[in-house]
Design brief:
There is one protein chain. By secondary structure, the protein is α/β, with parallel strands linked by helices. The protein has a single domain, classed as 3-Layer(aba) Sandwich (Rossmann fold). About 40% of the residues lie in helices and about 10% in strands. It has nine helices and eight strands. It has an eight-stranded mixed β-sheet with strand order 3-2-1-4-5-6-7-8, sandwiched between helices. Strand 4, helix 4 and strand 5 form a beta-alpha-beta unit. The longest helix is centred in the middle third of the chain and has 23 residues. The chain is globular.
């Protein structure tokens, strides 16, 4: 696996509950595995039970292998505390069901990693009528966060919410009248821009949440994992120029493995150094700076209002108390 010595030195216990969306593959897989190997109880939320259980079996085998090599910083247990829960972000009903199931079984949640996402998808719309990248990468996570906020705020100190965003947010534009892209045909739908928009919105949500939470026990941050070789890249196989650039980057050593891509997520989630850090946009385990659009407070609040309106059929009065403008 290599490079684990560069991960934060921290010892966790199974009392620490961590939820990773999309934790069965790519960056999410490595993030879930290494946080569990530090001792936390990790819940993997994704669509496929079969793929999740296969991923958990692999994680357990890799944990045993790391132990046999004498890797430092691993938990003392014989097996990792890993669980699966069904979550389909392309269905807001599925998100609602997941939230109800999670609250029924879990009294606490300390870390929520909004990691799952799709990239550069061709124009498509969910059963809820939203552009698919907008919903999967951003809006469904917005609903997840809104409903789980009370739980996190009552889970003790050092709770962390992390959005896995992207430098692609720099390719974005901000026009909420065109946020769903329905004015485009399939042929002229700007896939990179709409992917970038979804990642921009995650960073904007971070700022809005921290304004509302102020100095609560819960900090909200975002990050760019780098250019990583994951399943998400299959979505632009048909985009010859982009695919060529990605292959070239790989041959030049510029493309990270999922493990190296996950290091920033792991650090943001468990590094004691970042306990009280909020409004950070991490790049390579250090604090970077998002673009001007992401930092525009007026646009942040416009997006917030738009998002709450999109979710009006799912947000109840008790949810809105945490979402009102400070």
């Amino acid at each position: 696996m290599g490079g684990s010595e560069s991960l934060p030195k921290v010892s966790l216990t199974t009392d620490r509950v961590v939820l990773v969306t999309g934790g069965n593959t790519g960056i999410g897989y490595e993030t879930a595995k290494w946080i569990a190997m530090r001792g936390a109880r990790v819940i993997i939320a994704c669509r496929s039970e079969e793929r999740a259980k296969s991923a958990i079996e692999r994680m357990q085998n890799e944990f045993k292998m790391e132990k046999s090599k004498g890797a430092l910083g691993l938990c003392s247990s014989e097996t990792l505390a890993l669980e699966f829960m069904t979550l389909d972000l392309s269905s807001l009903r599925s998100v609602e069901t997941f939230i109800n199931n999670f609250k029924a079984k879990e009294p606490k949640l300390h870390v929520l990693l909004c990691n799952a996402g799709i990239g550069l998808h061709e124009q498509n719309y969910t059963e809820d009528g939203f552009e698919i990248m907008f919903q999967v990468n951003y809006l469904a996570h917005f609903l997840l966060v809104a409903k789980l906020l009370p739980l996190m705020l009552n889970s003790g100190e050092d709770c962390r919410l992390i959005f896995v965003s992207s430098e692609a947010h720099r390719t974005s534009s901000f026009d909420l009248d065109k946020a769903q892209g329905k004015h485009h045909t399939k042929e002229n739908f700007k896939r990179l821009m709409y992917y970038g928009n979804s990642k921009l919105y995650q960073i904007m949500q971070m700022y809005c949440l921290n304004r509302r939470l102020q100095v609560a026990n819960l900090t909200v941050n975002s990050l760019h994992p780098g250019l990583v070789n994951t399943e998400i890249n299959r979505n632009f196989d048909d985009m010859k120029c982009l695919s060529c650039c990605f292959r070239l980057g790989g041959s030049l050593g510029m493309i990270k493995t999922p493990f190296h891509g996950a290091k920033t997520s792991i650090s943001a989630a468990v590094n004691p150094q970042f306990k009280d850090t909020r409004d950070a946009y991490y790049i390579d385990m250090r604090i970077g700076r998002p673009n001007n659009l992401a930092r525009d407070q007026r646009k942040q609040e416009a997006l917030w209002k738009y998002s709450v309106d999109c979710l009006k059929d799912f947000l109840k009065e008790e949810d809105l108390q945490y979402l009102e403008k400070p």
